[in-house]
Specification:
303 residues, homodimer, alpha/beta, 11 strands, 11 helices
Amino acid sequence: VRDIVQKNFAGVLEAAKTKKHKRICVAAAHDEDTLRVVIEAKRLGLASSTLIGDKEKMWQVARKLNTDISDFEIIKEPDIIKSARLAVDMVSSGHADILMKGIMQTADIMRVVLNKETGLRGSGLLSHVGIMEVQSYDRLIFMSDAGLNIAPDLQKKAAILQNAVDASIALGNEKPNVAILSALELVNPDIPSTLDAAALCKMADRGQIKNCVVDGPLALDNAISLIAARHKGINSPVAGQTDVFIVPNMEAGNILYKSLVFFSGAKSCGIIMGARVPMVVTSRADSFESKLNSIAVAMLVSK
Amino acid sequence: VRDIVQKNFAGVLEAAKTKKHKRICVAAAHDEDTLRVVIEAKRLGLASSTLIGDKEKMWQVARKLNTDISDFEIIKEPDIIKSARLAVDMVSSGHADILMKGIMQTADIMRVVLNKETGLRGSGLLSHVGIMEVQSYDRLIFMSDAGLNIAPDLQKKAAILQNAVDASIALGNEKPNVAILSALELVNPDIPSTLDAAALCKMADRGQIKNCVVDGPLALDNAISLIAARHKGINSPVAGQTDVFIVPNMEAGNILYKSLVFFSGAKSCGIIMGARVPMVVTSRADSFESKLNSIAVAMLVSK
């Protein structure tokens, strides 16, 4: 049975519920926001969690939340870096399907994940994929890389693109449309992101990038509006129906992500792709709903 | 009498109406979209226009619009580059207060404007200032540079900042709040825009940038939301009340501008600051309303 294309997070959550039960391994789980969301994920029948961290604090939080966490697998390791190492080891050994960051710095868990001998590197690059639902657009937006790779070169952009495409495919989109964003639609030697865009298109032509339709450079309006593209005389197979947006640099991505959330009221979540398992690395500022959506997306991405 | 701070374009238009009548000089004015907006500007009592270009085509358009343009000063010069030169000469000699581009490439008129001997350069850098009105924010957004300077260095960013601040002041804001946007709020040597941000703040401390309150680096959410800033533990004088947004590069600016217009339904307009007169350089994709707003802003900026 072919998966249906998920157009919003309600659909993503429902789709995740139909999947095989998964196990999350949480590093530094002794945090109210983190525990609330993994408790909810368990209640909804999505995933069980192994909680690693300061066991006493976990129980303090559970009592505060009037919740019993005795049916969670809990591993006592108050040292944050050690808890990250333990979590990565457990995922490595196949004990869990998804790695999740609790109350620790992203940079700290990334260092453990990226360790060449004991980490979770796969064959590719790790990259952040933001997923947004905004009222004024008819499909989910996959955006990358707005969180991890600062100024990726062409090779890294190709990997970033493929990771984002893989996430979109995991959410039911058989052949995602990809727009390589820049400030304009013309190739301009003074604007390196337009050269990268042209090269990425040719890489897709040659099969170096797979399972998607790629076009760029495109300004954002041409990617999301067929009328805007036609107005500019742009004939693009992705115009008005772009699923995946590759941003020229992390700053542009971060600003677009925040603009959608704060100016357009978008719902959002994010995961890190490219490691041997999907990673949920939410930040304190993310809402409960956003964190739960990240888990649901990670479940669909998880093999 | 101190000007009131304009919080939306309706106010900007009303304020422009109270100003002394201005004269616009239009290069390559033989274009329906251009003529419609200068006719409306005249009808509203904002500004008269000198129309330079293909006179026959102008009259063709006028007939199509059922309008009489015999009360406009019209100069016949069908050659587009020559019409731009003529327009710049007329502005130079004090015949007009505002330069406007009709149906010609921005690059072509910019070349004429930037000519060191015969152009309109002032002491500073030319930069684009986008002005946006979005329902979810309590004030006008001044954004720069999303259109002209591709990857400005620190010195150029300082000039871009000052130009945008000057535009905000012209719209009644005595001491604008300026956020230097990046992907995060911390100074990070791997992200040059965060270093520029720190340097710009110090330049403001030392009086190298004037008449504004500057803070950065800031992520967009921290600039527009006091709650988001507090959540991150950021204590910033501009958080939640930023007027002027300096983007890290043109791509980020263009993407933010388009995001506001297409995802958030923002009203927008733009002018070019830094020449001896304000310039209205709208694009074909801009709405009638947007072009009229650009004229109104240029009038308020015009000395």
